[in-house]
Amino acid sequence: MPTDIETQPLLMLDLAGLTPDQEERELLRHPAVGGLILFSRNYQEPEQLHQLVRAVRAERQELLIAVDQEGGRVQRFRTEFTRLPPMATLGRYHDRDPQGALQAADLLGELMADELRAFDLDISFAPVLDLDHGNSSVIGDRSFHADPRQVVALAGAFIDGMTRAGMAATGKHFPGHGHVAADSHLELPEDPRDRDALEADLAPFRALAGRLEGIMPAHVRYPAVAPEPAGFSAHWLGRVLRGECGYRGVIFSDDLAMAGAAVAGDYPSRAEAALGAGCDMVLVCNDRPGAVAVLEWLEGRRFDTRVPAAGLRGRARAPMDLSRRRQAGDVADLLLKDA
């Protein structure tokens, strides 16, 4: 294989603990690594997080550092962070008071992003744009609402708040994970609906495509539309997302270590399928040998027309106004009572 081709930074991986060890520091310096995702095991308290991020930046200043900090049950950092409500509470609030709910979504989006940007973290993989069909336990109250119009309104307000805090937004899980009961962490779900029936699920992604800088597809197969799961499908990522929806941002694979990705083969095969279908960065989490296998496979390979994920690095921002921060905290507390 040619060795004079520049290796592209197309892999996002994880760390085992509270600080990177020597092996992990070497991995972070690998030119195929473009991002790092943090989990609850990587957080103990604020000063430790500052030190962790500084250690990572000392190895590669340009790395994209991400976390899942949606709110509700998907909030990796909790101690001394505001406890965020599940997004379904905003949907129920919107049913009662649309304007109040939009203001609350804006405040919570800004608060979530502001707290992370204070530690030089770049993105939270949020917001969830899946519809709540009442079928999916893995989505459930992570969804804003069952009505796509309300999802668009609330997610749009949440994105406004994130933007104000200097954070790019990533919508997930394209084209919609909310109709399947199976958990793609454990198996490959199949959604049997045809394209017409999927239009409501697609609506939030279509409406917000111009405001999202990241999108993550689902490890879900829609056999009436395409044979491959969405994250491995050129039809879904190329024809529908890039073509019909006009999306121009970064496409992140969902974690290739999830059981829903195993249909594509071993880890290099999974990465090849995702990148070949149109993903711009692939995630391999909680499986160090798998991540190393992808790194070795990426060396000396070239994928044209990738959207650089480094463009999602956090922006300069003024810290959230204290009065708005207090207001956002009050909103979070109030909505948690409805969780």
Fold and architecture overview:
The protein is α/β, with parallel strands linked by helices and 339 residues long. It is built from ten helices and ten strands. The chain has helices at 22-29, 46-59, 88-96, 98-117, 148-164, 195-208, 234-244, 267-277, 288-298, 322-336; strands at residues 11-13, 33-38, 64-67, 69-71, 74-75, 123-124, 170-174, 214-217, 250-255, 281-283. The strands form two sheets. The chain has an eight-stranded parallel β-sheet with strand order 6-3-2-1-10-9-8-7, covered by helices on one side. Strands 4-5 form a two-stranded antiparallel sheet. Helix 4 (98-117) runs parallel beside helix 5 and helix 4 crosses helix 10 (322-336). The longest helix has 20 residues, at 98-117.
Question: What is this structure, in a nutshell?
Answer:
By secondary structure, the chain is an alpha/beta fold.
Defining traits:
339 residues; alpha/beta; 8-stranded parallel sheet; two-stranded antiparallel ribbon; 10 helices; 10 strands; 38% helix
Which helices and strands occur, and which strands form pairs?
Layout lengths: L10 E3 L8 H8 L3 E6 L7 H14 L4 E4 L1 E3 L2 E2 L12 H9 L1 H20 L5 E2 L23 H17 L5 E5 L20 H14 L5 E4 L16 H11 L5 E6 L11 H11 L3 E3 L4 H11 L23 H15 L3
Parallel strand pairs: 1-2, 1-10, 2-3, 3-6, 7-8, 8-9, 9-10
Antiparallel strand pairs: 4-5
Helix pairs in contact: 3-4, 4-5, 4-10, 5-6
